[in-house]
Amino acid sequence: MEKHHKFSVWYVLLGVWAVLILHNLLFSMFAIETIAYSEFLDLVRKGKIAEVAITQNQIQGKTASAQDSEGTLFRTVRVDPEISELLAKNNITFKGEIESTFFRDLLSWVVPIFLFVGLWFFIMRRMMGQQPGFMSLGKNKAKIYVQEDLDVTFDDVAGVDESKHEMMEVIEFLKNPQKFTRIGGMIPRGILLVGPPGTGKTMLAKAAAGESGVPFFSLSGSEFVEMFVGLGAARVRDLFNQAKQKAPCIIFIDELDALGKARGFGNMGGHDEREQTLNQLLVEMDGFDPQIGVILMAATNRPEILDPALLRPGRFDRQILVDRPDKKGREAILKVHLKKIQYDGSVDVEKVAAMTPGMVGADLANLVNEAALLAVRRDKEKATMAEFEEAVERLVAGLEKKNRLINPREKKIVAHHEMGHALVSFFLPGTDPVQKITIIPRGIAALGYTMQVPTEDRFLMKKTELLNRIATLLGGRAAEAIVFEDISTGAHNDLSKATDIARSMVREYGMSEKVGQVYFSPKNPSPFLNMPGMGGATEYSESTAEIIDAEIREILAAQYKTAFDILSSKKSLLEKCAGILLEKETLDGQELRKIIEAS
Asked: What's the whole-model pTM score?
């Protein structure tokens, strides 16, 4: 294959430098005649020298001759006058020679120049993120994957069946575009994957490229924006030009909210570099022909802050929700990750999935890895169910701290507190069954905890179930008051959770007769991130706020009384179970049930 060498200005500079050196050498060799110093002295005595120019080591001049009016140029090397007189008296021909310093002089100025240029190139490459030079500052930084590099397929993506089904249409278009264009149909120009962090949006896009076998351009939204104005827009243009050359292909922009934030957001003005980059992206999305087979995909977990122009039909006109998996989806995800480790038959995937409500794919991958590490730490050949249960507790409650010293008095309070939670949950209907009770400290501040595992995924909660959940949370404080006739600071997290539930019941769910069927809570700014409301001025009066506060206090007081009454009637059982917990430090749900049924 014929190679094409790129033109460089360095070739021109090198040529000019070589010509100048050659010119100086030729001029010095042929234009001026070099004579011996003795011959020069003889010409001086004969009066044949017209003029001379004397330096420290050399004499240059012109001879005077009747035949040649202009004379002849010459040069000679000076010799010590005393030696020259002695040599002249003895009729000895003599001449001077200057030591050649050409290479020494050449190195004295060429080497520093090359060192300076090399240092300049090194610094510029570091500053530009390994960019070859100024002419490539506007080049995009997308990583290009081909079929051999993409080893991700839909078999590696689990728990998002609906999202995979939507992506199938994109793959079919890339494989067989005539099927759609035959009747005039057009594939959506842009596909936006939205969902909570860790649900597998990026992996789903890679799987689509891997299934279709087309090039995959992958980059982050933040890679477009640089310190130099205009570079982001130039990189967007270059990205789409490269994609058109490699069509059909998929362009994937991760964390689109870094680039596509609504213009004017934050009062940055209309000349912000990020806004120029966004404008260029909008223009490019309008300009490319969907028939050429370039599919633009993007992922974000903050779709509410994206510019409306990005979401209109003709741009990102299809949104695919990649939500948290349900129990069945978690089972499928766990099975995918279990292929990578060694585990025995005791591992109940369905039980592990039931213990991990709300976890996303990234959490479950971490869970499987933690279980494998625990098995290695315990010198086991394979991971067992015990390691998986321990891994769940690590992720939910934190690292176990067996070496933390707790005095017997505090340990007794913790045991009664946790048993209060467990007994209230056991005797109230509609609560999640208790999986485990422990008084071994975990995490930062937890001196013990009671783990409840739901039997199934729930999407709706009845008022009675919410009230029973509040009563369960307040059961620990009630147990302390009954047994020790005093309360401790150990219930601060329980109070926080119980207050949040009661506040939501009054302000969001309309479950208060005095407040009525009205929504008073500020909207969550992000549907996929656990962010609090924006705050600011409330949209209700102070009198309404007083009613809301009173209702929250009334709910909490009523449920505390419910928990107090249950534990008061079961005080002997509470004391018995707390004593067993103090002795064993950990009880599982089946052991607790046997103790209660035997009492």
From this structure: 0.70
H or E stretch at 166: helix 161-175
Higher pLDDT, 50 or 379: 379
Whether residue 317 is found in the same domain as residue 358? no
Residue 403: inside a domain: no
| The pLDDT of residue 2 | 44
Residues 124 and 171 in one domain: no
Distance CA 231, CA 229 (A): 6
Amino acid letter, 92: I
> Can you give the CATH number for the domain in which 467 is found?
1.20.58.760
Q: In sequence order, what are the residues at sequence separation of 6 or more whose Cβ sits closer than 8 angstroms to the Cβ of residue 531?
A: 524, 525
Tokens of 189: 């120009």
Amino acid at 396: V
Give the residue from 456, 450, 402 showing the smallest Cα distance to 426.
450
Give, in order, the Cα–Cα distances in Å from 147 to each of 140, 144, 212, 249, 326: 21, 10, 9, 11, 32
Q: CA torsion angle for 426, 431, 437, 442 (degrees, to 10)?
A: -160
Query: Are residue 275 and residue 185 in the same domain, yes or no?
Result: yes
Q: Is residue 402 part of a domain?
A: no
Q: Same domain, yes or no, for 368 and 439?
A: no
**How far from the centroid of its chain's Cα atoms is residue 314's Cα?**
29
Same domain, residue pair 85 and 52:
yes
Q: Is pLDDT above 90 for 101?
A: no
Does a structural domain hold residue 3?
no
Catalytic residues: 418
CB within 8 Å of 177: residues ≥ 6 apart: 187, 248, 291, 293
Helix (H, G, I), strand (E, B) or coil at 552: helix
**Sheet containing 33-34: order of strands:** 33-34, 73-77, 58-63, 49-54
Torsion angle defined by CA atoms of residues 308, 311, 313 and 316, in that order, rounded to the nearest 10 degrees? 150
Starting at the edge strand found earlier in the chain, the sheet holding 294-300 runs 143-145, 216-220, 249-254, 294-300, 190-194, 318-321
> Residue 382 and residue 508: Cα distance in Å, rounded?
48
In a domain, 236, yes or no: yes
CA angle 350-353-356, nearest 5°? 155
> Is a pLDDT exceeding 70 seen at residue 366?
yes
Domain containing 40 equals 9-89
